[in-house]
Specification:
Strands 5, 6, 7, 8, 9, 10, 11 and 14 form an eight-stranded mixed sheet that branches. A four-stranded antiparallel sheet has the order 2-3-1-4, with helices on one face. It is α/β, with parallel strands linked by helices and 433 residues long. The protein has 17 helices and 14 strands. α1 crosses α3 and α5 runs antiparallel to α6. The longest helix is centred in the N-terminal third of the chain and has 22 residues.
């Protein structure tokens, strides 16, 4: 954690924010920030991205002239902190002005920055009320995104769009090979961790998040960080002892570990990116589990698949638009558009075809995307089933048709199979005849 003053941290945060505005992902922008500053810069960056439309509107509203990009970046980050009340007004204004003065290229805008921030604080309530009349500001999303959600979710769309602006809860998956959920909840209580609630079959939601290093039992492999909606993958695929299982597109290994916790299986995990594949090894080592991890393009089966080998279960967690995980990745509406969705749908269709070739008869494949777009979900699967006489959709709990689009959701805590808090996903369970 950095001990540098805010004025110093606003400089790398502004540089990262400029990259995000130019189309770089948050993760990529943060990877280029010095390690000692990354945690604070991440907090600053997420705050401004979650208020992207609002801070842009405020600058246009209060500034008599359009500021230079470097000045605008610092000013927008400072405004986001003023909105979320991350610092006291006096401190924030002084630190933002100091950051502007510290660079020769922006120093002349110090008085301008000071004036805008002070005016915002004077008019804060009326400005925020006025801004909320604009849907793109209220939902922090471009028009096409809002309209698409309304087509998909109808009357529930505005509630989901509002929910996606909120910080996600930290959800853990309990490793039942090491400890029961009841036992882990007791362990949390004994450790003084309050606000831990069961979610789904094996999850625990922490209402008061902790740094991963401080989570009881994490280092010992008793729990992993995994969204409750994502935990459904292993539960729906439900491999049995002795089965041969493939986890396609496996990184970072959360579902890989969960499959191995579920049953004593022989598992192949395929990942194209060698850096991400390393995370699979790290996760499995922490959990005390083992899989055959291969670095390869899973869609090119001739490059990695042993001739004649068939799988009893396949988990295809396909590359997708990630439109269901906006709470964790608030930059997605500006990184993707409908052209990306259509392009990804072609990749998914190819992967479905390839994986089907190596699925044993009576075997099952679970198709998963963390997307709510029908082109990647229901439309994709309906086309696949229509063109494959040997494919049948298998109903599972909560999905009588064998597939389901799960909207991002948060409700009253309960222990139902479908988690009360989750990201957005599409699941389809197929059996080969």
């Amino acid at each position: 954690m950095s001990n540098s003053p805010l004025s110093h941290l606003l400089i790398p945060a502004a540089a990262a924010w400029q990259k995000v505005k130019d189309g770089t992902s948050i993760d990529k922008a943060l990877s280029e920030v010095a390690a000692e500053h990354r945690a604070v810069v991440q907090s600053l960056l997420y705050a401004v991205v979650r208020n992207r439309m609002l801070v842009s509107w405020i600058v246009k509203k209060l500034a008599l002239r359009e500021p230079k990009p470097q000045v605008a970046a610092i000013l927008e980050i400072a405004l986001a902190q003023a909105i979320v009340e991350g610092e006291k007004p006096f401190t924030l204004v002084n630190q933002a002005v100091a950051a502007i003065k510290s660079q020769r290229s922006t120093a002349a805008a110090a008085n301008f920055c000071n004036a805008v921030l002070r005016k915002f604080y004077r008019e804060k309530q009326s400005l925020l009320e006025e801004a909320q009349k604009d849907e793109e500001i209220r939902f922090n999303a471009p028009r096409w995104w809002i309209e698409k959600y309304r087509l998909i979710f109808g009357k529930d769309a505005d509630h989901i769009l509002t929910l996606q602006r909120e910080h996600p809860l930290l959800v853990l998956r309990v490793n039942r090979k090491k400890i029961s959920r009841a036992g882990y909840l007791k362990k949390l209580e004994e450790a003084g961790v309050q606000g831990a609630l069961p979610v789904g079959l094996e999850g625990v939601a922490l209402m008061n998040p902790l740094p991963v290093s401080d989570i009881p039992g994490f280092k010992d492999g008793e729990v992993s960080v995994q969204d409750a909606g994502s935990q459904l993958a292993a539960q729906v695929l439900a491999p049995q002892d002795g089965m041969v299982v493939l986890d396609a597109c496996a990184a970072p290994g959360g579902k890989t570990g969960h499959l191995l916790e579920t049953a004593d299986i022989k598992l192949d995990a395929i990942e194209k990116d060698p850096i991400r594949a390393k995370r699979i090894y790290e996760n499995l080592e922490r959990l005390g589990l083992d899989a055959d991890v291969k670095v390869a393009d899973v869609g090119k089966i001739e490059e990695w698949h042993k001739a004649g080998k068939l799988y009893d279960r396949i988990l295809l967690d396909a590359p997708c638009s990630a439109t269901g995980i906006l709470r964790r990745h608030p930059d997605i509406p500006w990184l993707k558009d409908l052209r990306d969705v259509r392009k990804l749908a072609k990749t998914q269709a190819h992967l479905l075809e390839q994986m089907w070739k190596i699925l044993a008869k009576q075997g099952r494949m679970l198709y998963v995307v963390c997307s709510v777009m029908p082109e990647e979900g229901v439309e994709q699967i309906e086309k696949f089933v229509a063109s494959h006489a040997d494919a049948e959709l298998v109903p599972f709990e909560g999905a009588p048709k064998g597939y389901i689009t799960l909207a991002p959701h948060q409700a009253q805590a309960n222990d139902a199979f479908m988690p009360w808090v989750r990201d957005g996903f599409f699941y389809a369970l197929l059996e080969k005849h």
